[in-house]
Amino acid sequence: MLLFAIHNKLPFLSARKLVLHEMRGKAAFLYRGIVPAFLYRFIKERFYMRITEIEMSKQAFIYGAIHMLANRLQNVGDKIDPAISTKQWFVLAVVSKYEEAPPNIGDIAAALGTSRQNIKKMANILKQRGFLELEKDKNDKRSINLFLTKKCEKYFKGREQQESEYLKNIFLGVDDEMLNALCNGMGKLIENLDSLFENTER
Questions:
Q1: What is the pLDDT of residue 10?
Q2: Residue 84 predicted with pLDDT over 80
Q3: Pairwise CA distance, residues 18 & 26, whole Å
Q4: Can you list the pairs that 10-18 forms with residues at least 24 positions away whose Cβ atoms lie under 8 Å?
Q5: Does residue 75 sit within a domain?
């Protein structure tokens, strides 16, 4: 009741304003002899507790949303082009980024955060479909290098417009500010996950 009464008398004096003003060194100004110190501390603590809960719920939402988006991207992507799956396309996209020297199966596995077995299985399927060539490394016979075929380059050249429209629809309504925030946030999450992965491997 006391809090309710004070809040009615000072509608502008919300918990958020109290804490924010304290951060700016204006706590004494806000007291004005009306809000007792113990009540001020109580409001501040409850405010911080609420902020923590909100932050944790946001983190949980983002964590779940990443999994949900991954599943939906795969399902929608697989329907767009029945000739090749989203995961297979991703493998080819990563292989195409290696311009100076061909990547091996281990390189692609590390880049995608998956096992060598998974990449080897997909590479063999892509080889059968004529999208990849697999060759043993000259210096290390245990290593298998991956090369894009002419058929692969021609095939994906023909679907550039389709891919462009696909990405355009996914990011519809996402402005530059949101894109920058997403890039920074996703980059940080990847960095944190890499650190966690390294720690589990020790």
A1: 39
A2: yes
A3: 9
A4: 10/34, 10/35, 15/43, 15/44, 15/46, 15/47, 16/47, 18/43, 18/44, 18/47
A5: yes
Q: Does residue 175 form part of some domain?
A: no
Domains: count for the chain: 2
> pLDDT tens digit string along 158-172?
888 888 898 999 999
Whether 95 is covered by a domain: the verdict is yes
Residues whose CB falls within 8 Å of the CB of residue 3, separated by 6 or more in sequence, listed in order? 39, 43
Task: Report the number of secondary-structure helices (H) and strands (E) in the chain.
Answer: 10, 2
Helix residue spans in 24-141 (DSSP H): 27-31, 37-80, 86-96, 105-112, 116-128
pLDDT score for 50: 62
Domain boundary among the residues 64, 80, 96 is at 80
Residue 179 inside a domain? The answer is no
Query: What whole-number distance in Å separates Cα of residue 50 and Cα of residue 79?
Result: 43
CA 42 to CA 25: how far, in whole Å? 18
The answer on 63 and 23 residing in a single domain is: yes
Query: Token pair for residue 3?
Result: 């809090």
